[in-house]
Amino acid sequence: MPNTTNRFLTKCNRNLLDPADLATHITRRELFVSNDARMSIRLHDTRATFITLALANGKSESWVQDRTGHRSSDMINRYRRVARTAAELGLGDLLPMNEAIRECGGKSQGFP
User: Fold this and answer.
1) pTM score above 0.85
2) Which of 24, 52, 91, 107 is the most exposed place for a label (fewest CB within 10 A)?
3) CA distances from 110 to 21, 24, 95 (A)
């Protein structure tokens, strides 16, 4: 991954963990609304999604363990059934954060 992408992702990840800073940079209200059509997402939910889609897209157990810190195959196996469904649906990979959340795109989006 190029250094510029790493810099943007690192900056955005840090901001996403700080709700006060997040609200300063990401102003689209729909990202903060929770209702019948939209659920709030916890940080742990994003980790589970990452694991599920990685397995669905053919990443090895050791690849997932290296990135998530799981030490046990038992934990990763909990995601396999859902990963098979994701693979059958052809959900594909997650977009890089700087593409999925436009406010993570660097200086032009208000990041110094």
Assistant:
1) no
2) 107
3) 12, 9, 21
Cα distances from 81 to residues 21, 37, 58, 77, in angstroms, run 36, 25, 13, 8
Q: Is 12 exposed, middle or buried (0-12, 13-18, 19+ CB in 10 A)?
A: buried
Q: Which residue has the tokens 């709700």?
A: 19
| Nearest 10 degrees: Cα torsion 44, 47, 52, 58 | -170
Name the domain count of the chain.
1
| Domain of 21, in residue numbers | 3-109
Q: In a structure prediction context, what are the per-residue pLDDT tens digits for the chain, which is 112 residues long? A: 344 444 444 555 555 555 566 556 666 777 777 888 877 777 788 889 999 999 999 999 999 999 998 888 898 999 999 999 999 999 998 888 777 777 666 444 444 4
